Amino acid sequence: MRRRRWTLTLALATAAALAAPPALAAPRAAPPPAPPAPPAAVTGYAAGFDPLLPSSDPVELREAPRALSVAYTYEGREHTLDDYLARTGTQGFVVLDGHDIVFERYVTTNRDTLFQSWSMAKSFTSAAVGVALGEGFIDSIDDPVTEYVPELKGSGYDGVSLRNLLRMSSGIEWTETYDVPFVHVAASLGYPLTELAKQRKRGWEPGTRFEYTSMNSFVLSWVVAKATGTPYHSYVQEKIWGPAGMASTAYLGNDSNGNSMGYCCYYATDRDFARFGLLYLNGGKANGRQVVPASWVAESTRPSAPFNRGYGLQWWLGDDGGFSANGLGGQLIWVSPRHDVVIVKSTLATLVAGEETDAAFEALAAEVARTRGAG
Fold first, then answer.
1. By CB count within 10 A, which of 9, 239, 313, 362 is most buried?
2. CA 121/CA 238 separation, integer angstroms
């Protein structure tokens, strides 16, 4: 699956950008960043975070480790999985063969650690849009966003379709590596994301090109809240987190004004991130329940525009029918329908080419499939 150059660029640019003048109307002084995550020991609500409670019927993941001999070639050199995990600073790694955990590793962390999703959250937001569409709260993703969020009339988002938000073609002026750090810090300090969204200006014709824009994903989470009459985090709890059989408490970042971030900041275990990947691998079903409409799973994980065949509706796409939720610095929920495998990777930062990750994961998925049923 294709990785994006902006992921590393954003990781390197964020620290520098935090010290520059703000691009949006926000606190004048450049503030220090908020703490990166609630600690794993957090057991209750903390300011800036909403809890997502475990399902009463968690999806069972069976511990079934097996020997996997994984080697891959990248740029003429052969590497092993152990080498890849060490060089990429991977802190959490889970591999599912269906419901079987066939490989799991943690470094300075453990299976109860809550990892920051970063932009993997965008795929959860896509799921919430799909559920709201299936329930009739959203009539069509070709509706203008202002039909659901009239507060955006007169902004750069006025008249932009939900489809163009979902496929990152909103037309607003935005440079991800510069704008998102200030949005994130401002929201962390309590500045309303809704106000930041209303300040966006139109820069180009929507639906004509791909421009990765985290604000689009926040606006989609705002649409979910307005359309359903339920706060985004509550809707995710009721319609996704619980029904999809998540086993642990997670936390979802907010701006301290009642608005979930939507573009980032799910803090969850790698096993629960794997359960989300498994939900999509199984066409939106968990424990025999249709959680996300199968039609939405299919539509959101196929090319969404001729100008970018590698992006669906808040999911990144591979060449082999696979897809992934990608987060800043190398967080991944990687789904291979071809091999019936889900891989989750958590790390502070992965400074290797995305193409190498593709090669490593594809070799790993093929080995899982090859050894299925052996012994």
1. 313
2. 17
CA 180, chain centre distance (Å): 15
Structure tokens, 96: 């599912």
| 9-32: pLDDT as tens digits | 444 334 333 333 222 333 333 333
**DSSP string for 309-348:** TTB-SS-EE-TTS-EEEEETTTEEEEEETTTTEEEEEEES
Q: Which of 277, 317, 338 is nearest to 95 (CA)?
A: 277
CA 18 to chain centre: 23
Rounded CA separation 148/223 (Å)? 6
In the sheet that holds 250-253, the strands lie side by side as 49-52, 250-253, 266-268, 115-116
Decide: helix, strand or coil at residue 350.
coil
Residues whose CB is less than 8 angstroms from the CB of residue 288 and which lie 6 or more positions away in sequence, other chains included: none
Residue 217, amino acid: S
Spatial neighbors of 247 by CB under 8 A, at least 6 apart, are: 54, 55, 58, 59, 61, 269, 271, 272, 275
Which residue's entry shows tokens 């994130």? 184
Structure tokens at 207: 């639906």
Closest CA to 339 of 366, 357, 360: 366
Question: Count of CB atoms within 10 A of residue 56's CB?
Answer: 7
Please indicate, yes or no, whether the overall pTM of this predicted structure exceeds 0.85.
Answer: yes
Question: Rounded to an integer, what distance in angstroms lies between the CA atom of residue 346 and that of residue 358?
Answer: 15
Structure tokens at 15: 């620290």
Question: pLDDT of 148-191, one tens digit each?
Answer: 999 999 999 999 999 999 999 999 999 999 999 999 999 989 99
Name, in order, each residue with C-beta under 8 angstroms of 231's C-beta and a sequence gap of 6 or more: 50, 225, 258, 260
Place of tokens 């820069």: 203
**The residue count for the chain:** 375
CA distances from 11 to 87, 196, 271, 323 (A): 17, 22, 25, 22
Give the H/E segment covering residue 108.
Answer: none
Q: 349 φ, ψ to 5°?
A: -165, 135
Amino acid symbol at 205? E
Q: In this structure, are residues 159 and 147 in contact, taking their beta carbons and an 8 Å threshold?
A: no
